[in-house]
């Protein structure tokens, strides 16, 4: 009875040319990785509602098994990515230019993560130096990204990596030139990301000896 009913439903959907769309909801990577949930909720989450970085899915799949619990991470920009990294590394320090967003994010962070407000400008760009630390991972996913890349490279550990999100944008094209001059190579991770439906790219810049074992 149920089988017959399912068959009738599929016949009806196919007649309306909706069968393929429904199939995507039922059996696809868009469903499995939580893209549908993120798109409808406008939150960067996986299929179970857990936080994800707002970066491409290929990048997330690549970096997650390479993260180690002694890593220290700095982020330009904050949100669900801050929570996601904090669950897997020793500590996360983030900077934001929006005071209201800082309050929203801070309420959700675990004890090993912190977000700081800095007005957009020199204090924002230089926020990576406040702690006096060097970081295994620096993520550039906020404002003034080219300036942040140039400044923060000196605050990487000897095996540290820099991550630039939305690196396909023409306004960030110069980044690869100056990173190459500093001895970095890179991997571009093109693909879909939570919430949005267009193709985007997240890039990892690394040196020969790096903490991700690339």
UniProtKB/TrEMBL annotation:
Alphabetized Gene3D superfamilies for the sequence: Vaccinia Virus protein VP39
Keywords: Methyltransferase, Transferase
GO biological process: methylation
GO MF annotation list: methyltransferase activity
InterPro entries, per database record: SAM-dependent_MTases_sf (IPR029063)
Entry-linked SUPFAM superfamilies: S-adenosyl-L-methionine-dependent methyltransferases
Name of this protein: FkbM family methyltransferase
